[in-house]
Each structure stands twice: as C-alpha cells, then as structure tokens.
Write a structure and sequence with these properties.
Helices cover 48% and strands 10% of the residues. The chain starts with 16 loop residues before the first strand and ends with a helix. It contains twelve helices and nine strands. The chain is globular. It has a single domain (51-275), classed as Rossmann fold, CATH 3.40.50.620. A five-stranded parallel β-sheet has the order 5-4-3-6-7, sandwiched between helices. A two-stranded antiparallel ribbon has the order 1-2. A two-stranded antiparallel sheet has the order 8-9.
C-alpha cells in the first residue's frame, strides 16, 4: 500500500495536497492554516480594513464567498469593534439562485451573522431570466455584471458598511486582467486593484481572497465541511471569460504559477495607467447614482430592455 508523503510544513502528518507552484505538500491542518495566513497577509498588505470596520461580505452561496465569510468571521473576532454582515443578491435565476440563497442563509445562521438580501426584481423591475429572454446582442453576463455591481453596492450602503468584501479569487483576478487587456479596456484594468478605492457614492470594495487559487478555495471548503453550491450558472457559458478561464487552466498545468505571474504583472501595470475621466464626475439624471456621463450604464441597459419589451407589445 502506497503511503502519502509527509506534510512538508509540520513533517508529521500525511499530505493531502501538493502545490505545484511552490513545491509544498500539505496535510489538512497545515493547508487550512496556510489559506488563513495568506488571507490575513493580503488584508494587512493592502490595508483593507480598519480596526472598527463594518464589513459587508458579498455571499453568493458558492465555495469562495462562503469560505471567505467563515474566515472573516474568525479573523474579525480579534477586533471586537469590527462587524461582519452578509449581503446576498437574488438575480432571479430560477433553480440556480434558489439553492444558493438557501445555503447562504444556513451558513449565516450557523455563524450568527446578520444576513440581508436584495433582488434584481426589487431594484430594476426585472429578473435575470426575464433579461435573458429580452436581451439583444449582449450576453447575459454583460447585463448581470453591471447590475450585480450596482446591487452589491446598494446592499452594502443599506447596512451602512464602510467596506464591501467580495470573494474574487486568484483565478478571477488573472482572468479579469487578461480579459480587460484583450478588450483594450484600461479603465477596468485600473479598477481591479484588490484594495479598491474610495469614490463618492461607492462603498470601498476589497478582495481578501485575491491570492487564493480557485482549486485551493474549493479544497478549503471541503476540508472545513462548508456546504456550497456546486451547480454552475446556466448563463455562464456565454461569457468570454469562460474561454479565458479554460486557456489559463491549461497554461497553469504546463506552467505552474502563471496565474500568480499575470495577477502580479497587472498590479505592476495599474499604477502606471492614466485613464482620463475614469472616475465618476457627476450623477445620472435618471437614478442619481455616480457616473461619468449623463446616464449611468445601469439605466442605459434597463432602458434598452424596457424599450424592447414595449416594442413586443401588440398595438
């Protein structure tokens, strides 16, 4: 019977995970501890929180967000004046989001964390299922990304948070860097910094999981016994990000650590980017939210969908 190599960290327990990019072999305890240490180091390095921060954690019901919620609850226990509140967005994807919200609610109850939800239907008068039925050339993810960002910011404001923590992992960060470079969208590349920025009308958004690879986030959730949604969003395959994800995963197998390299290269590039008019300079004349133009992107998309719906009605 083949015996698993010993953990290279503690040297006493069998390893369950091998990190190709570092050469480490880790037992369950040392692996979980390494994830917490990495998250704590990331929070400290980017000065994501204050000692008395009121932190809204975006909880979708997936492995990343639920793992982040568990970790932040544990970490913030060291700071009695800090608070953690979970916020979830119901986009209105029948079946898929129903299960996710159930898991998010159960996790919050077990952790004793306040939980708030906000829906696309309440905010925009449309669900993602309805949007997908009406949309034109844009993919469902193009609509969802814009509307979800607005909804999360609104949810964080509703609970009077001064930080909005999202569970974007290393894979997400590397994908975003490549995606925006391939689109030539330097403004969005500049906006992906894990520490976020203070802008009028926006709750500062931070990403404590930005240096945790997706596969390690998954293993962490399994080892901690965190129940999470495993079903993918039914609309995800239409996104360009899916192609980039597959490409990066193939490259990571051949060149371990390539995702870290892309992520760190992006962090080096961001301070050198000067994008004129990148920050909101006014207010949307329709909804009053911060925007760079006369009408914000949310109102543009919702307005287009409303016109399409009116055009379908019989005269």
């Amino acid at each position: 019977m083949k015996v698993a190599p010993l953990c290279t960290k503690c040297g006493s327990k069998p390893s369950v995970y091998f990190r190709p990019y570092s050469g480490e072999r880790l037992c369950p305890g040392c692996f979980a501890a390494s994830i917490r240490e990495r998250v704590e180091r990331t929070i400290s390095r980017f000065r994501m929180f204050e000692f008395d921060s009121r932190i809204a954690v975006g909880v979708s019901g997936g492995k990343d967000s639920l793992s982040l919620l568990h970790l932040l609850v544990e970490i913030e226990e060291q700071f009695p004046k800090a608070e953690v509140i979970a916020v979830s967005i119901d986009e209105g994807v029948r079946g898929y989001r129903d299960e996710a919200l159930r898991l998010a609610g159960e996790a919050c109850r077990s952790l004793g964390v306040e939980w708030r939800t906000l829906s696309f239907a309440d905010l925009f008068g449309l669900t993602m299922d309805e949007i997908t039925g009406r949309r034109g050339e844009l993919t469902p993810c193009s609509y969802c990304g814009v509307l979800r960002r607005r909804a999360l910011n609104q949810a964080a404001r509703d609970v009077e948070a001064d930080r909005l923590a999202t569970a974007h992992n290393l894979d997400d960060m590397a994908q975003t860097a490549l995606l925006n470079l391939m689109r030539g969208d330097l403004r969005r590349l500049a906006g992906m910094h894990p520490a976020g920025s203070d802008l009028p009308g926006f709750v500062r958004r931070v990403k404590p999981f930005c240096e945790v690879p997706e596969r390690e986030s998954t293993l962490y959730a399994y080892l901690r016994g965190i129940e999470f949604q495993s079903r993918p969003c039914p609309y995800a395959e239409t996104a360009m990000r899916t192609d980039i994800r597959r490409f990066l995963n193939r490259m990571e197998v051949k060149r371990p650590g390539i995702k870290f390299i892309i992520y760190r290269a992006a962090l080096e590039i961001i301070p050198r980017i000067s994008v004129g008019g990148a920050e909101p300079s006014g207010r949307c004349r329709i909804c009053g939210e911060p925007t760079r133009g006369d009408v914000c992107r949310v109102c543009q998309l919702v307005g287009e969908l409303s016109k399409e719906a009116e055009g379908e009605q019989p005269s």
